[in-house]
Amino acid sequence: MLTQHQLDNITLVRTTIFLFFVLLLPLTSFAQNEVKAFFDLTKRGQYLQAQDLLTSHSDALPAFELQTYLSIMKEGNFPEKRPPAQIDVTSRTGQLRLLNNAITLYAKFGDEVAAFQQLHTVLNAAKKHQDSVLVCEVYRNTLEIYERFHIYIEDDSYDYMLKDYWSWAYDTFEKEAHTVYAYRLIQRFHYKQPTVVSNYYQTHWNRLEDISNSFLAAKRDLTHYVYHQDFTREMDSAAYYLKRALHLLENKDGYFEAERKRAAAINRASYLMLIDQPQRALSIFDSLERHPPATNYLFQSLDKFIDYRKALVYGSLNRERDSLIAMNRYLSKELSFNQADNLQVVSEYETKYQTAEKEKQLLIEKDKRTQNRNIAIGLGGGLAAVLLLSVLLFKNSKKKQRIAEQEREIEIQKKEKILKEQELNAIDAMIAGQEKERQRLASDLHDSVGATLSAAKLQFEHLKKNKNQLTALDALFEKTGTLLDEAYTEVRAMAHVKHSGVIAKEGLLPAVEKLAKNASFQQSLRVEVQDFGLTERLEPSLEIAIFRMIQELVTNIIKHANASEATISITQHEHSLSIIVEDNGKGFNASKFQQKEGMGLSSIERRVEFLEGTMEIDATPGKGTTILIDIPI
Question: Cα dihedral angle (19, 24, 29, 35), rounded to 10 degrees?
Answer without folding.
Answer: 170
